[in-house]
Specification:
Shape: globular
Number of domains: 4
Strand content: 15-25%
Structural class: alpha+beta
CATH class of the largest domain: Alpha Beta
Radius of gyration: 29 Å
CATH superfamily of the largest domain: 2-enoyl-CoA Hydratase, Chain A, domain 1
């Protein structure tokens, strides 16, 4: 009897030992099976397929199809795309430092917006200069991206341009030595009109931005700042550690900012502030919108959870995922989602159905929710622009007019004194351009009419449809003049940038920022 019991005990134990590895290895077995089938399939196709295999295309499309089954942020970057990848994650590239524009496909490339102190600027290239050739290759027939790719390159190398100058009309050769171009994340910092509110516009979270924010805060305080607006609207995020450092400027040392939780407990990590704050008591307003994502949500969510700032605007994007960069063979890289992040109260801001959201408490007991970005303390919506204004911007009409304006105006008044007043001139210019100037109501009507025709119902409603169409009719000039007040700020901003660089555009934008003005009236969160 004892031997029988002992036999079954040993058998059961051995069974448990055997079953556990089998379960643990199931995923590994499936992965090995997949790799073996994949390799065998490729070998067989390479041996017997009737035509030469398009291996490069199959390789890229196969990887992309595989990663499409995962989240939208996990992606493979081959060696040839490294320059664009570095631009995406670090806002750096090797080049001349200028935005180019091609009004017509068969026309020349035009220098649209050189950056201040860039190689383009140092070599006298200005807005409106036409690039006829790049390293001896005519720009006629080249797409804008092809021209841009030819201008980029390793810092220290030289690119030669054949240029038709805007003012003189002379054609000359210009050799430009490329540099490492870094687009700053802190695009503007200054004191607002009230003389006591500091304002920082931050567009990203690339390496070193925390140092730039710190310097800006100290500078603004020296100028008399009594409260700060940190504008993170349309800031798509970036490096998590930079977000942690920025929060650390305003909260006690050792404060929890964010926790990243991976697939298992070994991949869970807390990120806390590591230095004493530089402004522990400064009132702060953080502005966000639907374009504020990732690291922007870490900053706004942490400051909200800690009751350290008043968050104003509209709900943020809802990207609560952490990506890591992993080296791949042949100089490729894999940007892979490795964790979800959680704010100090325990919220995950990753988008989820409203029915799955939960309540959490801030440091002082205020209720906040998870599952759909960061909801501001005060909802303040931005101006809802007309379809016409979007069409003018997207179709490059404002940009083309700006180039004409620059040609006709060698100088403009100082920025604080400059206001665009030649709207009649713009209307005349726009009247000759092709673009969709229908109102939103008219586009909805056109869609409805088409649907009625497809359903065979339009003939029975002819009288009503004709009456409605007549009521919605508006000629181009009438519509342009009707929307004058919302179009002028876009023109004014574009012109200001061409004479006083990128910072000037933000300063002009602030003149018309009703959302910011309303944010300044809100009662601050008490902490």
């Amino acid at each position: 009897m004892k031997r029988t019991v002992l036999f079954w005990a040993v058998a059961l134990l051995m069974g448990c030992v055997a079953v556990l590895p089998a379960g643990a290895q199931s995923k590994g077995f499936k992965l090995g099976q997949w790799v073996e089938i994949h390799n065998s399939l490729l070998k067989e196709l390479n041996r017997n397929y009737v035509d030469t295999l398009p291996l490069d295309r199959m390789h890229r499309q196969g990887i992309e199809a595989m990663l499409e089954e995962l989240d939208p942020y996990t992606e493979y970057v081959p060696e040839e795309d490294q320059e664009d990848f570095q631009m995406m994650i670090g806002k750096t590239y090797g080049g001349i430092g200028a935005i180019i524009f091609k009004p017509e496909k068969d026309g020349n490339v035009i220098i649209n917006e050189p950056y201040k102190d860039s190689p383009a600027y140092k070599n006298g290239l200005v807005c409106g200069d036409e690039i006829l050739a790049i390293d001896g290759v005519s720009t006629h027939g080249l797409e804008t991206k092809e021209c841009s790719d030819r201008m980029k390159g390793k810092p220290g190398t030289v690119v030669k341009f054949l240029v038709k100058k805007l003012r003189s009309g002379d054609t000359l050769e210009v050799a430009v030595t490329r540099e490492r171009i870094h687009l700053p994340d802190v695009e503007y910092a200054g004191i607002l009109e009230d003389g006591k509110t500091g304002y920082i516009y931050q567009s990203g979270f690339t390496e070193g931005v925390s140092d730039a924010v710190k310097a800006a805060v100290k500078s603004l305080r020296a100028q008399g700042m009594e409260r700060l607006v940190l504008d993170l609207r349309n800031n798509g995020g970036g490096i998590m550690q930079e977000a942690v450092k920025i929060v650390g400027f305003f909260v006690p040392k050792g404060s929890l900012v964010v926790s990243a939780r991976g697939r298992d407990s070994l991949q869970t990590r807390e990120y806390r502030t590591s230095s004493d704050p530089i402004e522990p008591d400064l009132p702060i307003i953080v502005m966000v919108n639907s374009g504020s994502a990732s690291a922007s949500e870490i900053v706004s969510g942490a400051l909200q959870d800690l009751d350290r700032a008043t968050v104003v605007g509209t709900r943020t994007f809802g990207k609560g995922l952490v990506q890591s960069i992993v080296p791949m063979p042949y100089n490729g890289q894999l940007k892979v989602t490795t964790a979800k992040y959680y704010t100090p109260s325990g919220r995950c801001v990753q988008n989820a159905p409203d029915s799955l959201t939960n309540e959490f408490k801030t440091a002082h007991g205020r209720t906040v929710r998870d599952g759909g970005g960061i909801t501001p303390d005060y909802i303040v919506k931005s101006h809802n622009y007309s379809r016409l204004t979007y069409s003018l911007v997207v179709n490059g009409i404002v940009e083309q007019y700006t180039l004409q304006y620059v040609r006709n105006h060698p100088t403009i008044p100082a920025l604080d004194d400059f206001h665009f007043t030649d709207y009649d001139d713009f209307v005349t210019f726009a009247m000759d351009k092709e673009f969709d100037y229908r109102s939103s109501a008219r586009t909805y009507f056109d869609q409805m009419k088409k649907t009625l025709e497809e359903d065979g119902l339009s003939e029975s409603m002819t009288t009503q449809l004709e009456a409605m169409q007549k009521a919605l009719e508006m000629d181009k000039e009438t519509f342009l003049r009707l929307k004058k007040d919302e179009i002028i700020p876009f023109i004014e901003e574009e012109i200001a940038v061409r004479y006083y660089w990128q910072e000037a555009g933000i300063r002009v934008r602030l003149r018309y920022d009703d959302q910011l003005r309303e944010a300044l009236t809100k009662e601050p969160v008490r902490f």
